[in-house]
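Usage

Read records sequentially. Each one opens with the input sequence:
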Amino acid sequence: MSDVAQKKSRRSMIMVIGAFILPIVLAKLALTQNWLEYGVTNKGTLFENELTLEKLGLEEPALQKSWLVIYSLPAQCGAHCEQTLLSVNNSYIALGKEMPRVKRVALSPNPLSQQQTKKLTDNSWTIITTPSQVRNILPEPQVLVVDPLGNVILSHKPPVNDDDQAMFGKEILADMKKLLKYSRVG
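and closes with the structure output:
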């Protein structure tokens, strides 16, 4: 074999070995250097401790046997709060054929204005006065996702800016679609 053919053969062999080894080395680096998030598929925050509707003081029969999206409203429901309600409502509507499996609940610490109450009841929201247990356990406004067995699964913090409301609604929608897709209850 001539020197030129031998160099060409070695170069081909190195390229073939590199084609197999390079992806393995990159994968190992990605794992050791934490370039990727591990197993995070939900957009909201998972509850690590057991939290149920019973512990929150929400034992109403209307809330049983279906998925719930509960928005714990701030003390005063201003324009930002109404935008969050609209985002949650739009996420509910985007569920399409899965809508009958889900109920929307607004927990209000103070009475809402007549206009706000009418808007919510026209959209089939269930309005409940916030029980004291909810105020103690969840002092900040947030959106909770509850399964049909009464377990609080996820929490979503409402965005600070109105510009982030669309993304907030999409996150709730993504979580709900995934839960409803894999759930056999409710």
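Summary fields computed downstream for this record:
- The mean pLDDT is 88.
- The CA atoms of residues 53 and 60 lie 9 Å apart.
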